[in-house]
Design brief:
There is one protein chain. This protein has 309 residues and is of the alpha+beta class. The protein folds into two domains: 5-233, no CATH class; 235-289, no CATH class. The chain contains seven helices and eight strands; from the N terminus they run αααβαααββββαβββ. The strands form three sheets. A three-stranded antiparallel β-sheet has the order 1-2-3, covered by helices on one side. Strands 6-7-8 form a three-stranded antiparallel β-sheet, with no helix packed on it. Strands 4-5 form a two-stranded antiparallel ribbon. Strand 6 (243-250) and strand 7 form a beta hairpin. Helix 4 packs parallel to helix 7 and helix 6 (132-158) runs antiparallel to helix 7. It is globular.
């Protein structure tokens, strides 16, 4: 189990890509390792974003009875706010890196030298090096969501955090926390940022993830990976150590694996056992993502335009 793919499995995510990842020992290939890292980082960042949103709201309620301002919106800051904004930056970076990683593994699958960024592959509309169904999925995703994600990530990294202020919004429905994204990510000047559209950063992250998730699974299916499965319990052993022992825990599959490797003799011994992982306090369970058998069937399909406003 690489990175936090247990979190991905628990929520039933990327199950068509998982078949691609597990086929022909692709899990040991660097391009698929990078993809697995990206997917794990995306899920982890989204989980953190919503966890920290709740944490910030809980912190505000400690003071709600002391101050009764008539305004419906209150600019709110707390120590957890930085963690929230940092997690949002991590989400934008992770999904951007995963966009590029999927092209890398696609090039290896097709035996083609293709651009390593969707920003480049979008120029291939009139070229036939990639199967039409696969290319159509890439272009559609890029136009629906991918390019705008790139813009927000570039804005966040080079021109100022896109998530920087949080508002407590009080209404008859209760209390909520809002973070607004700049209206136009193409504007690369902080002094010219506007927020009149009030683009909800939390909703935007969720919807952009759904579109990316659907794209990755449909792209995998277009290449023949039509079965849905989990990521398996995989481990690539480093060969640049003499004699070493590796212990890997996989709480999702309730496995504990210890491997003793001797590089000089190329011998290794595996000890595997089932564990009651519910007794370990470090085990993480998704709260934002409900446990699902098939996430793909419940997300927007790539043939349908979904607004991120």
């Amino acid at each position: 189990m690489s990175f936090r793919l247990d979190l991905v499995n628990r929520a039933g995510l990327f199950r068509n890509y998982a078949e691609w990842h597990e086929a022909d020992k692709n899990w040991a290939d660097l391009s698929h390792i990078n993809m697995a890292h990206g997917l794990s980082s995306i899920v982890y960042a989204l989980e953190r974003i919503h966890l920290l949103k709740k944490e910030c709201l809980d912190q505000y309620t400690l003071f709600d009875d002391k101050y009764r301002w008539p305004q419906p919106e209150i600019l709110f800051r707390s120590p957890s706010m930085f963690d929230l904004f940092a997690s949002y930056s991590a989400y934008l970076l992770s999904i951007r890196l995963a966009q590029n990683s999927i092209l890398n593994i696609l090039g290896k699958k097709l035996g083609l030298s293709i651009p390593q960024s969707m920003n480049g592959i979008a120029e291939w509309k009139r070229k036939n090096k990639i199967p039409k169904r696969t290319l159509d999925l890439i272009i559609l995703y890029w136009e629906q969501s991918g390019f705008e994600i790139k813009q927000y990530r570039d804005l966040d990294q080079h021109y100022g955090l896109v998530a920087r202020d949080a508002w407590i919004v009080r209404s008859s429905q209760g209390v909520d926390l809002k973070v607004y994204l700049p209206d136009d990510p193409a504007i690369q000047s902080e002094s010219k940022f506007t927020f009149t559209l009030k683009r909800d950063a939390f909703d935007y992250a969720d919807k952009s993830f759904e579109l990316f998730h659907s794209f990755v699974n449909e792209l995998s299916a277009s290449l023949g990976y039509t079965s849905e499965r989990d990521f398996d319990y995989n481990m690539s052993l480093p060969i640049n150590y003499g004699v070493s022992v590796h212990i890997t825990s996989d709480p999702y599959q309730k496995k504990l694996c210890a491997t003793e490797l001797n590089v000089s003799t190329k011998e290794f011994e595996i000890h595997e056992s089932l564990e009651r992982f519910d007794s370990y306090t470090y085990i993480k369970i998704n709260k934002h993502f409900p446990i699902k058998h098939s996430f793909l069937k419940e997300t927007p399909q790539s043939g349908k335009t979904v607004s991120l406003d």
